[in-house]
Specification:
single chain, 417 residues, alpha/beta, Aspartate Aminotransferase, domain 1, Aspartate Aminotransferase, domain 2, 2 domains, globular, binds ligand C6P
């Protein structure tokens, strides 16, 4: 993606015209204010259209038929792989594996790389702010292989404690697996520096980019990571498709994780030889139409420019911080607005997060409440549940005003009780 010149400013009102669901009115007269984008984003007509067109005109299984439709479907599927390659600046299309999502991508590496390479006492370095998808697969691996898990701590304001990185990176560290952007704190982690330091210590690096790919440009060549994972449904695409990027020379040497159709060169009754990349890691029928619609989502994001998307979210986040910090009884978790992506997680004094989400919903405002699949992070922060507003390219400053009004209303309802 070009970085020449300042990013264009987004017009969220024009963008909203592309998203039919955003004109929903709920509970009689409340316009939908959708602030649950870190969980899953909405879909523009262009993505819905690509999905429909695929099913109406081009659909057949891929890499199987010699017939006309299957060839069309295969071409579209493989063209999307190239779009994804360019989107993250990978060196080769073979390095792009379609998976069901971030969780599946991380599990693929835990199973394939982890089972093949880890021996008892080997170490994996994670952090306290990881999503369960970047904790549990490694816990399972540690149990299978006798590996040891270590965790980079965080500061009270939600930054990784980099001072402890060198101490935690030992000669036994085989992998560092980290989120690029926290799905709760919004912290943008210095993954480039961490990747460099991990490599210096002889470890491989996996980046969980589930909250990065939708919001900021990604360049795996510049970053130098070995593996990277993200999900289509958090970046305007359909659910059911995600991406695993891996450096070709590493993926080439790994055994396949799932076995079945497509991932083989030949099969006999008692053995098989695996296919080359990327087919080796795409066993069974892949998410064909969702992957192609993810391509349409990438086109949409490229047209706007991810730098412009980010700038828009920075503006929303700063505005939300100013507004919420002015409301007594609101505590925002994580770094200052300037240091994070478009995620504002907060606690309302005296009101449980589930009640907050319910009362906000009555005002039409959709936020997520709970532990957001980060229980260890919540333990570290000393809270069991939080409320999270997360923004995307179609959100407006006026919607943040509505969030502020809905919070005041929730406090008013609770005071009356
Ligand atoms: N976080 C959230 O509301 P899947 O479910 O596989 O598409 O993505 C998992 C995942 C992994 N890492 C991070 C940093 C994530 O944020 C997520 C998904 C959603 O925060 C759903 S729990």
């Amino acid at each position: 993606m070009s970085t020449a010149g300042p990013p264009a400013t987004l017009d969220p009102y024009a963008i909203r015209e592309d998203f039919p669901i955003l004109s929903t009115v709920l509970h009689g007269d409340k316009p939908l204010v959708f602030l649950d984008n870190a969980a899953s984003t909405q879909h523009p007509r262009q993505v819905i259209g690509a999905l429909t067109e695929m099913y109406e005109k081009h659909y057949a299984n891929v890499h199987r038929g010699i017939h006309w439709l299957s060839e069309q479907s295969t071409d579209l599927y493989e063209q999307t792989r190239e779009k994804v390659r360019a989107f993250i600046n990978a060196a080769m299309t073979e390095e792009i594996i379609f998976t069901p999502g971030t969780t599946a991508s991380i599990n693929t590496i835990a199973r394939s790389w982890g089972d093949a390479h880890l021996t008892p006492g080997d170490e994996i370095l994670l952090s306290v702010m990881e999503h369960h998808s970047n904790l549990v697969p490694w816990q399972q691996l540690a149990e299978r292989q006798g590996a040891v898990l270590r965790h980079l701590p965080i500061t009270d304001d939600g930054h990784l404690v980099l001072d402890q990185l060198d101490e935690l990176l030992t000669e036994r560290t085989k992998l560092v697996s980290l989120t690029s952007i926290s799905n709760v704190l919004g912290t943008v982690n210095p993954i480039r520096e961490i990747t460099r330091r991990a490599h210096d210590a002889g470890a491989l690096v996996l980046i969980d980019a589930a909250q990065h790919a939708p919001h900021l440009p990604l360049d795996v060549a510049e970053l130098g990571c070995d593996f990277l994972a993200f999900s289509g449904h958090k970046m305007l695409g359909p659910s059911g498709v995600g991406v695993l990027y891996g450096r070709a020379e590493i993926l080439d040497a790994l055994p396949p994780f799932l076995g079945g159709g497509s991932m083989i060169n030949s099969v006999q009754l008692d053995r098989f030889t695996p296919a080359d990349l990327p087919a080796k890691f795409e066993a069974g029928t892949p998410p064909i139409a969702p992957a192609i619609a993810l391509g349409a989502a990438i086109d949409y994001l490229n047209n706007l420019g991810l730098e412009a998307v980010h700038q828009h979210e920075v503006q929303l986040t700063r505005y939300a911080h100013d507004l919420l910090e002015g409301i007594a009884g609101v505590q925002i978790l994580g770094p200052r607005a300037e240091e994070k992506a478009g995620i504002v997680t907060f606690v309302l004094e005296g009101i449980h997060a589930h009640d907050v989400a319910h009362l906000l919903d009555r005002q039409g405002v959709a936020v997520r409440a709970g532990h957001h699949c980060t229980q260890p992070l919540h333990d570290r922060l000393g809270v069991t549940a939080t409320s999270r507003a997360s923004f995307y390219l179609y959100n407006t400053l006026a919607e943040i005003d509505q969030l502020g009004d809905a919070i005041l209303h929730a406090q008013h309802v609770f005071r009356r009780r």
